[in-house]
Write a structure and sequence with these properties.
This protein is an alpha/beta fold. The protein is built from 14 helices and 16 strands. Helix 10 links the parallel strand 7 and strand 8.
Length: 429
Protein backbone atom coordinates (compact mmCIF):
# COMPACT_ATOMS: atom_id res chain seq x y z
CA UNK A 1 0.00 0.00 0.00
CA UNK A 2 2.89 2.31 -0.84
CA UNK A 3 3.95 2.25 2.81
CA UNK A 4 1.44 4.91 3.80
CA UNK A 5 -0.73 2.80 6.08
CA UNK A 6 0.27 -0.31 7.98
CA UNK A 7 -2.01 -3.20 8.89
CA UNK A 8 -3.67 -2.50 12.21
CA UNK A 9 -3.27 1.26 11.86
CA UNK A 10 -5.61 3.29 14.01
CA UNK A 11 -7.00 5.15 11.04
CA UNK A 12 -10.55 4.25 10.07
CA UNK A 13 -10.73 1.70 7.22
CA UNK A 14 -13.11 3.93 5.31
CA UNK A 15 -10.66 6.84 5.48
CA UNK A 16 -7.75 4.62 4.44
CA UNK A 17 -9.63 3.20 1.48
CA UNK A 18 -10.92 6.60 0.35
CA UNK A 19 -7.34 7.86 0.38
CA UNK A 20 -6.19 4.88 -1.68
CA UNK A 21 -8.94 5.53 -4.21
CA UNK A 22 -8.05 9.19 -4.56
CA UNK A 23 -4.37 8.40 -5.02
CA UNK A 24 -5.19 5.67 -7.53
CA UNK A 25 -7.32 8.13 -9.53
CA UNK A 26 -4.45 10.63 -9.59
CA UNK A 27 -2.05 7.89 -10.72
CA UNK A 28 -4.50 6.76 -13.42
CA UNK A 29 -4.46 10.23 -14.95
CA UNK A 30 -0.69 9.96 -15.33
CA UNK A 31 -0.81 6.41 -16.68
CA UNK A 32 -3.43 7.33 -19.27
CA UNK A 33 -0.76 9.10 -21.33
CA UNK A 34 2.37 7.30 -20.06
CA UNK A 35 4.64 6.12 -22.85
CA UNK A 36 4.86 2.49 -23.86
CA UNK A 37 8.57 2.66 -23.07
CA UNK A 38 8.02 3.76 -19.47
CA UNK A 39 5.36 1.09 -18.83
CA UNK A 40 7.57 -1.61 -20.29
CA UNK A 41 10.55 -0.37 -18.30
CA UNK A 42 8.50 -0.68 -15.11
CA UNK A 43 7.43 -4.22 -15.97
CA UNK A 44 10.92 -5.40 -16.83
CA UNK A 45 12.39 -3.77 -13.73
CA UNK A 46 9.71 -5.48 -11.63
CA UNK A 47 10.59 -8.82 -13.23
CA UNK A 48 14.25 -8.28 -12.31
CA UNK A 49 13.26 -7.32 -8.76
CA UNK A 50 11.19 -10.50 -8.36
CA UNK A 51 14.07 -12.61 -9.61
CA UNK A 52 16.41 -10.89 -7.15
CA UNK A 53 13.94 -11.24 -4.26
CA UNK A 54 13.22 -14.92 -4.95
CA UNK A 55 14.45 -16.07 -1.51
CA UNK A 56 12.43 -13.43 0.33
CA UNK A 57 9.28 -14.23 -1.66
CA UNK A 58 9.61 -17.95 -1.05
CA UNK A 59 10.24 -17.36 2.67
CA UNK A 60 7.11 -15.23 2.88
CA UNK A 61 5.16 -17.90 1.01
CA UNK A 62 6.33 -20.62 3.41
CA UNK A 63 4.81 -18.60 6.27
CA UNK A 64 1.51 -18.45 4.37
CA UNK A 65 1.56 -22.16 3.47
CA UNK A 66 2.43 -23.22 7.02
CA UNK A 67 -0.42 -21.09 8.38
CA UNK A 68 -2.83 -22.58 5.84
CA UNK A 69 -1.92 -26.14 6.79
CA UNK A 70 -2.15 -25.29 10.48
CA UNK A 71 -5.65 -23.95 9.80
CA UNK A 72 -6.61 -27.28 8.20
CA UNK A 73 -6.77 -26.08 4.61
CA UNK A 74 -7.02 -28.84 1.99
CA UNK A 75 -4.19 -29.72 -0.36
CA UNK A 76 -5.96 -28.24 -3.40
CA UNK A 77 -6.12 -24.92 -1.55
CA UNK A 78 -2.46 -25.21 -0.56
CA UNK A 79 -1.57 -25.93 -4.20
CA UNK A 80 -3.19 -22.65 -5.26
CA UNK A 81 -1.32 -20.82 -2.51
CA UNK A 82 2.12 -22.39 -2.80
CA UNK A 83 5.05 -20.89 -4.72
CA UNK A 84 8.25 -22.61 -5.77
CA UNK A 85 11.15 -21.85 -8.09
CA UNK A 86 9.18 -22.87 -11.18
CA UNK A 87 6.23 -20.68 -10.26
CA UNK A 88 8.49 -17.73 -9.44
CA UNK A 89 10.10 -18.18 -12.86
CA UNK A 90 6.58 -18.21 -14.30
CA UNK A 91 5.79 -14.86 -12.68
CA UNK A 92 8.98 -13.37 -14.11
CA UNK A 93 8.20 -14.77 -17.55
CA UNK A 94 4.66 -13.40 -17.41
CA UNK A 95 5.88 -9.89 -16.60
CA UNK A 96 8.35 -10.06 -19.47
CA UNK A 97 5.65 -11.33 -21.83
CA UNK A 98 3.29 -8.51 -20.87
CA UNK A 99 6.08 -6.01 -21.49
CA UNK A 100 6.56 -7.49 -24.97
CA UNK A 101 2.85 -7.35 -25.73
CA UNK A 102 1.59 -4.54 -27.98
CA UNK A 103 0.41 -1.47 -26.11
CA UNK A 104 -3.33 -1.19 -26.77
CA UNK A 105 -3.71 2.42 -25.66
CA UNK A 106 -4.27 4.77 -28.59
CA UNK A 107 -4.65 1.95 -31.09
CA UNK A 108 -7.36 2.46 -33.69
CA UNK A 109 -10.13 -0.13 -33.46
CA UNK A 110 -12.06 1.18 -36.45
CA UNK A 111 -12.21 4.26 -38.66
CA UNK A 112 -14.57 5.49 -41.36
CA UNK A 113 -15.68 8.56 -43.29
CA UNK A 114 -19.15 10.08 -43.46
CA UNK A 115 -20.72 11.57 -46.62
CA UNK A 116 -20.44 15.03 -45.05
CA UNK A 117 -16.65 14.67 -44.82
CA UNK A 118 -16.38 13.86 -41.09
CA UNK A 119 -13.58 11.42 -40.33
CA UNK A 120 -14.45 9.20 -37.35
CA UNK A 121 -12.19 6.77 -35.50
CA UNK A 122 -12.65 4.60 -32.42
CA UNK A 123 -9.50 4.30 -30.30
CA UNK A 124 -8.62 2.36 -27.18
CA UNK A 125 -8.39 4.15 -23.83
CA UNK A 126 -7.74 2.91 -20.27
CA UNK A 127 -10.67 1.97 -18.04
CA UNK A 128 -9.20 4.08 -15.21
CA UNK A 129 -8.94 2.49 -11.75
CA UNK A 130 -9.45 -1.24 -11.35
CA UNK A 131 -10.02 -3.06 -8.09
CA UNK A 132 -8.88 -6.67 -7.84
CA UNK A 133 -10.06 -8.76 -4.90
CA UNK A 134 -8.37 -12.14 -4.69
CA UNK A 135 -7.89 -14.92 -2.19
CA UNK A 136 -5.20 -17.56 -2.20
CA UNK A 137 -3.22 -17.18 -5.43
CA UNK A 138 -0.26 -14.85 -4.71
CA UNK A 139 0.74 -14.70 -8.40
CA UNK A 140 -2.42 -12.67 -9.02
CA UNK A 141 -0.57 -9.77 -7.38
CA UNK A 142 1.92 -9.66 -10.24
CA UNK A 143 -0.46 -10.69 -13.04
CA UNK A 144 -3.11 -8.12 -12.16
CA UNK A 145 -0.66 -5.34 -11.42
CA UNK A 146 1.22 -5.87 -14.67
CA UNK A 147 -1.82 -6.20 -16.93
CA UNK A 148 -3.49 -3.13 -15.47
CA UNK A 149 -0.30 -1.11 -15.84
CA UNK A 150 0.22 -2.14 -19.47
CA UNK A 151 -3.36 -1.09 -20.25
CA UNK A 152 -2.76 2.31 -18.62
CA UNK A 153 -4.88 1.63 -15.53
CA UNK A 154 -4.16 2.13 -11.87
CA UNK A 155 -5.05 -0.85 -9.69
CA UNK A 156 -5.94 -1.45 -6.06
CA UNK A 157 -5.22 -5.03 -5.00
CA UNK A 158 -6.88 -6.64 -2.01
CA UNK A 159 -5.46 -10.09 -1.31
CA UNK A 160 -6.82 -12.60 1.16
CA UNK A 161 -5.37 -13.25 4.58
CA UNK A 162 -4.06 -16.63 3.39
CA UNK A 163 -1.70 -15.06 0.84
CA UNK A 164 -0.96 -11.89 2.84
CA UNK A 165 2.80 -12.33 3.26
CA UNK A 166 3.40 -13.62 -0.28
CA UNK A 167 1.37 -10.84 -1.89
CA UNK A 168 3.24 -8.14 0.01
CA UNK A 169 6.63 -9.57 -0.96
CA UNK A 170 5.63 -9.58 -4.64
CA UNK A 171 4.00 -6.14 -4.45
CA UNK A 172 7.22 -4.64 -3.10
CA UNK A 173 8.92 -5.72 -6.33
CA UNK A 174 6.21 -4.13 -8.48
CA UNK A 175 6.71 -0.85 -6.64
CA UNK A 176 10.45 -1.04 -7.36
CA UNK A 177 9.59 -1.39 -11.03
CA UNK A 178 7.39 1.71 -10.95
CA UNK A 179 10.11 3.68 -9.19
CA UNK A 180 12.71 2.60 -11.77
CA UNK A 181 10.50 3.86 -14.59
CA UNK A 182 9.57 7.13 -12.90
CA UNK A 183 5.88 6.19 -12.77
CA UNK A 184 3.67 6.97 -9.76
CA UNK A 185 4.05 4.48 -6.94
CA UNK A 186 0.31 4.67 -6.37
CA UNK A 187 -0.33 3.06 -9.77
CA UNK A 188 -0.23 -0.37 -8.09
CA UNK A 189 -1.47 -0.33 -4.50
CA UNK A 190 -1.99 -3.26 -2.15
CA UNK A 191 -4.43 -3.02 0.73
CA UNK A 192 -2.32 -3.54 3.84
CA UNK A 193 -5.03 -4.95 6.08
CA UNK A 194 -6.99 -8.17 6.22
CA UNK A 195 -10.01 -6.35 7.66
CA UNK A 196 -13.01 -7.38 5.55
CA UNK A 197 -14.39 -3.87 5.80
CA UNK A 198 -11.86 -2.96 3.10
CA UNK A 199 -13.71 -5.25 0.67
CA UNK A 200 -16.97 -3.51 1.48
CA UNK A 201 -15.43 -0.15 0.72
CA UNK A 202 -14.20 -1.41 -2.65
CA UNK A 203 -17.59 -2.86 -3.52
CA UNK A 204 -19.11 0.54 -2.81
CA UNK A 205 -16.75 2.06 -5.39
CA UNK A 206 -14.38 4.07 -3.18
CA UNK A 207 -16.46 7.23 -3.52
CA UNK A 208 -16.54 7.07 -7.30
CA UNK A 209 -12.85 6.34 -7.71
CA UNK A 210 -13.18 2.68 -8.75
CA UNK A 211 -14.28 1.92 -12.31
CA UNK A 212 -14.26 -1.91 -12.44
CA UNK A 213 -13.90 -4.77 -9.95
CA UNK A 214 -12.36 -8.15 -10.74
CA UNK A 215 -12.81 -10.88 -8.09
CA UNK A 216 -10.45 -13.89 -8.14
CA UNK A 217 -11.46 -16.56 -5.67
CA UNK A 218 -14.08 -19.00 -4.55
CA UNK A 219 -17.80 -19.02 -5.11
CA UNK A 220 -18.62 -17.15 -1.89
CA UNK A 221 -16.27 -14.26 -2.71
CA UNK A 222 -17.38 -13.94 -6.33
CA UNK A 223 -21.04 -14.27 -5.37
CA UNK A 224 -20.71 -11.49 -2.81
CA UNK A 225 -18.94 -9.22 -5.27
CA UNK A 226 -21.53 -9.80 -7.99
CA UNK A 227 -24.39 -9.22 -5.53
CA UNK A 228 -23.04 -6.14 -3.75
CA UNK A 229 -20.75 -4.29 -6.17
CA UNK A 230 -21.91 -0.86 -7.24
CA UNK A 231 -19.46 -0.76 -10.15
CA UNK A 232 -19.12 -3.14 -13.13
CA UNK A 233 -17.68 -6.60 -12.40
CA UNK A 234 -15.56 -8.87 -14.62
CA UNK A 235 -15.90 -12.38 -13.18
CA UNK A 236 -17.07 -15.94 -13.36
CA UNK A 237 -18.91 -17.51 -10.45
CA UNK A 238 -17.88 -21.12 -11.07
CA UNK A 239 -15.95 -23.23 -13.52
CA UNK A 240 -18.30 -26.16 -14.13
CA UNK A 241 -16.39 -27.35 -17.18
CA UNK A 242 -17.62 -30.14 -19.48
CA UNK A 243 -15.83 -32.46 -21.89
CA UNK A 244 -18.08 -34.24 -24.38
CA UNK A 245 -16.75 -37.33 -26.16
CA UNK A 246 -18.58 -37.64 -29.48
CA UNK A 247 -19.07 -41.01 -31.15
CA UNK A 248 -16.40 -40.08 -33.72
CA UNK A 249 -13.73 -39.48 -31.06
CA UNK A 250 -10.29 -41.07 -31.32
CA UNK A 251 -9.87 -43.09 -28.12
CA UNK A 252 -6.15 -42.48 -27.55
CA UNK A 253 -6.58 -38.74 -28.14
CA UNK A 254 -9.58 -38.68 -25.80
CA UNK A 255 -7.71 -40.45 -22.99
CA UNK A 256 -4.74 -38.07 -23.18
CA UNK A 257 -6.81 -34.89 -23.45
CA UNK A 258 -9.29 -35.81 -20.70
CA UNK A 259 -6.57 -36.87 -18.27
CA UNK A 260 -4.84 -33.53 -18.75
CA UNK A 261 -8.11 -31.57 -18.62
CA UNK A 262 -8.97 -33.08 -15.24
CA UNK A 263 -5.69 -33.94 -13.54
CA UNK A 264 -2.99 -31.48 -14.67
CA UNK A 265 -4.10 -29.11 -11.91
CA UNK A 266 -7.44 -29.91 -10.34
CA UNK A 267 -7.66 -26.53 -8.59
CA UNK A 268 -7.74 -24.28 -11.67
CA UNK A 269 -11.00 -22.94 -13.06
CA UNK A 270 -10.41 -24.64 -16.41
CA UNK A 271 -10.23 -28.13 -14.91
CA UNK A 272 -12.85 -30.52 -16.30
CA UNK A 273 -15.60 -31.38 -13.82
CA UNK A 274 -18.10 -33.36 -15.94
CA UNK A 275 -17.44 -35.93 -18.66
CA UNK A 276 -20.17 -36.81 -21.17
CA UNK A 277 -19.77 -39.84 -23.45
CA UNK A 278 -21.93 -40.88 -26.40
CA UNK A 279 -23.85 -44.12 -25.87
CA UNK A 280 -22.71 -45.29 -29.32
CA UNK A 281 -19.14 -45.62 -27.99
CA UNK A 282 -19.99 -46.50 -24.40
CA UNK A 283 -18.67 -50.05 -24.67
CA UNK A 284 -15.39 -49.07 -26.37
CA UNK A 285 -14.50 -45.71 -24.81
CA UNK A 286 -16.09 -45.31 -21.39
CA UNK A 287 -14.08 -47.78 -19.33
CA UNK A 288 -10.67 -47.07 -20.93
CA UNK A 289 -11.14 -43.33 -20.35
CA UNK A 290 -12.28 -43.83 -16.76
CA UNK A 291 -9.45 -46.30 -16.12
CA UNK A 292 -6.98 -43.66 -17.30
CA UNK A 293 -8.45 -41.16 -14.85
CA UNK A 294 -8.54 -43.67 -12.00
CA UNK A 295 -4.90 -44.59 -12.61
CA UNK A 296 -4.06 -40.89 -12.27
CA UNK A 297 -5.82 -40.78 -8.88
CA UNK A 298 -9.22 -39.44 -9.93
CA UNK A 299 -12.47 -40.58 -8.31
CA UNK A 300 -15.43 -41.25 -10.62
CA UNK A 301 -19.00 -40.29 -9.77
CA UNK A 302 -21.11 -41.87 -12.47
CA UNK A 303 -24.63 -42.32 -13.70
CA UNK A 304 -26.15 -45.82 -13.69
CA UNK A 305 -24.50 -46.89 -16.96
CA UNK A 306 -21.11 -45.69 -15.82
CA UNK A 307 -21.38 -47.46 -12.47
CA UNK A 308 -22.26 -50.70 -14.27
CA UNK A 309 -19.22 -50.56 -16.58
CA UNK A 310 -16.78 -48.99 -14.12
CA UNK A 311 -17.06 -50.81 -10.76
CA UNK A 312 -14.71 -48.33 -9.05
CA UNK A 313 -17.17 -45.47 -9.59
CA UNK A 314 -19.74 -44.30 -7.05
CA UNK A 315 -23.28 -43.18 -7.96
CA UNK A 316 -23.62 -39.52 -8.93
CA UNK A 317 -26.33 -37.37 -7.41
CA UNK A 318 -28.08 -34.42 -9.03
CA UNK A 319 -25.73 -32.14 -7.10
CA UNK A 320 -22.71 -33.64 -8.87
CA UNK A 321 -23.79 -32.22 -12.23
CA UNK A 322 -23.54 -28.68 -10.84
CA UNK A 323 -20.46 -29.07 -8.64
CA UNK A 324 -17.06 -27.51 -9.20
CA UNK A 325 -14.97 -30.05 -7.34
CA UNK A 326 -11.56 -28.34 -7.55
CA UNK A 327 -10.31 -31.79 -6.61
CA UNK A 328 -9.47 -35.16 -8.17
CA UNK A 329 -13.14 -36.02 -8.74
CA UNK A 330 -15.13 -36.04 -11.97
CA UNK A 331 -18.79 -36.75 -12.71
CA UNK A 332 -19.44 -39.01 -15.71
CA UNK A 333 -22.63 -39.47 -17.71
CA UNK A 334 -23.56 -41.46 -20.80
CA UNK A 335 -25.65 -39.40 -23.23
CA UNK A 336 -27.83 -40.66 -26.05
CA UNK A 337 -26.37 -38.33 -28.67
CA UNK A 338 -25.04 -34.88 -29.37
CA UNK A 339 -28.43 -33.26 -28.75
CA UNK A 340 -28.58 -34.66 -25.22
CA UNK A 341 -24.98 -33.62 -24.58
CA UNK A 342 -25.70 -30.04 -25.65
CA UNK A 343 -28.88 -29.96 -23.57
CA UNK A 344 -27.01 -31.21 -20.50
CA UNK A 345 -24.28 -28.62 -20.91
CA UNK A 346 -26.66 -25.73 -21.48
CA UNK A 347 -28.68 -26.81 -18.42
CA UNK A 348 -25.81 -27.36 -15.99
CA UNK A 349 -22.88 -25.30 -17.27
CA UNK A 350 -21.53 -22.14 -15.67
CA UNK A 351 -20.67 -21.02 -19.25
CA UNK A 352 -16.94 -20.92 -18.59
CA UNK A 353 -15.29 -23.55 -20.83
CA UNK A 354 -16.51 -26.67 -22.67
CA UNK A 355 -14.73 -29.10 -24.98
CA UNK A 356 -15.73 -31.64 -27.60
CA UNK A 357 -13.56 -34.61 -28.55
CA UNK A 358 -14.53 -35.56 -32.09
CA UNK A 359 -13.30 -36.25 -35.60
CA UNK A 360 -16.65 -35.36 -37.18
CA UNK A 361 -16.36 -31.71 -38.25
CA UNK A 362 -20.12 -31.27 -38.56
CA UNK A 363 -20.49 -32.29 -34.91
CA UNK A 364 -17.79 -29.83 -33.92
CA UNK A 365 -19.48 -27.05 -35.88
CA UNK A 366 -22.82 -27.73 -34.19
CA UNK A 367 -21.17 -27.82 -30.74
CA UNK A 368 -19.44 -24.49 -31.39
CA UNK A 369 -22.69 -22.94 -32.67
CA UNK A 370 -25.14 -24.13 -30.04
CA UNK A 371 -23.10 -23.99 -26.83
CA UNK A 372 -23.12 -20.52 -25.26
CA UNK A 373 -20.00 -20.56 -23.11
CA UNK A 374 -17.13 -18.08 -23.06
CA UNK A 375 -14.58 -20.63 -24.33
CA UNK A 376 -15.20 -23.66 -26.55
CA UNK A 377 -12.51 -26.18 -27.47
CA UNK A 378 -12.10 -29.03 -29.92
CA UNK A 379 -9.68 -31.89 -29.28
CA UNK A 380 -7.74 -29.88 -26.70
CA UNK A 381 -7.46 -29.79 -22.93
CA UNK A 382 -9.73 -27.34 -21.15
CA UNK A 383 -6.72 -26.33 -19.07
CA UNK A 384 -5.72 -24.12 -22.00
CA UNK A 385 -8.52 -21.78 -20.85
CA UNK A 386 -6.02 -19.12 -19.87
CA UNK A 387 -5.07 -15.74 -21.29
CA UNK A 388 -1.38 -16.58 -21.31
CA UNK A 389 -2.05 -19.75 -23.30
CA UNK A 390 -4.18 -17.71 -25.71
CA UNK A 391 -1.20 -15.47 -26.43
CA UNK A 392 -2.82 -12.53 -24.65
CA UNK A 393 0.14 -11.79 -22.41
CA UNK A 394 -1.54 -13.22 -19.32
CA UNK A 395 -4.96 -12.62 -17.82
CA UNK A 396 -6.51 -10.96 -14.83
CA UNK A 397 -9.29 -13.56 -14.79
CA UNK A 398 -11.99 -15.26 -16.85
CA UNK A 399 -15.28 -13.45 -17.41
CA UNK A 400 -18.47 -15.29 -18.29
CA UNK A 401 -20.70 -12.24 -18.64
CA UNK A 402 -21.74 -10.95 -22.05
CA UNK A 403 -20.91 -7.26 -21.67
CA UNK A 404 -17.54 -5.81 -22.73
CA UNK A 405 -15.18 -8.58 -21.62
CA UNK A 406 -15.81 -12.31 -22.06
CA UNK A 407 -13.40 -15.20 -21.64
CA UNK A 408 -9.80 -14.41 -20.61
CA UNK A 409 -9.52 -10.80 -19.45
CA UNK A 410 -6.19 -9.61 -20.80
CA UNK A 411 -4.70 -6.28 -21.77
CA UNK A 412 -7.24 -5.40 -24.47
CA UNK A 413 -10.19 -6.30 -22.24
CA UNK A 414 -8.87 -3.84 -19.64
CA UNK A 415 -9.50 -0.96 -22.01
CA UNK A 416 -12.48 1.06 -23.15
CA UNK A 417 -12.63 3.34 -26.17
CA UNK A 418 -13.51 6.81 -27.28
CA UNK A 419 -14.50 8.33 -30.60
CA UNK A 420 -12.35 10.92 -32.33
CA UNK A 421 -14.23 13.01 -34.91
CA UNK A 422 -12.28 15.25 -37.29
CA UNK A 423 -14.01 17.84 -39.39
CA UNK A 424 -13.34 20.84 -41.62
CA UNK A 425 -16.05 23.21 -40.48
CA UNK A 426 -19.12 20.98 -40.86
CA UNK A 427 -22.31 22.10 -39.17
CA UNK A 428 -25.48 20.07 -38.71
CA UNK A 429 -28.60 21.32 -40.47
Amino acid sequence: MSGRHEAGAAADIGTIMRDMGQRARAAARVLAFASTHSKNKALLAAAMAIRAARADILAANIRDVDAARLAGRGESFVDRLALNDVRIDGIVTTLQAIAAFADPIGSVIAEWSRPNGLEISRVRTPLGVIGVIFESRPNVTADAGALCLKAGNAVILRGGSDSFNSAHAIHACLVKGLEAAGLPEDAIQLVATTDRAAVGEMLAGLHGNLDVIVPRGGKSLVGRVQAEARVPVFAHLEGIVHVYVHESANLDLAKAVIRNAKMRRTSVCGAAETLLIDRAIRDTHLKPICDTLIAAGCAIRGDAETCTLVPESTPATEADWVTEYEDAIISVKVVANETEAIDHIETHSSHHTEAIIAEDQEAVSRFFTEIDSAILMHNASTQFADGGEFGMGGEIGIATGKMHARGPVGVEQLTSFKYLVRGSGQTRP
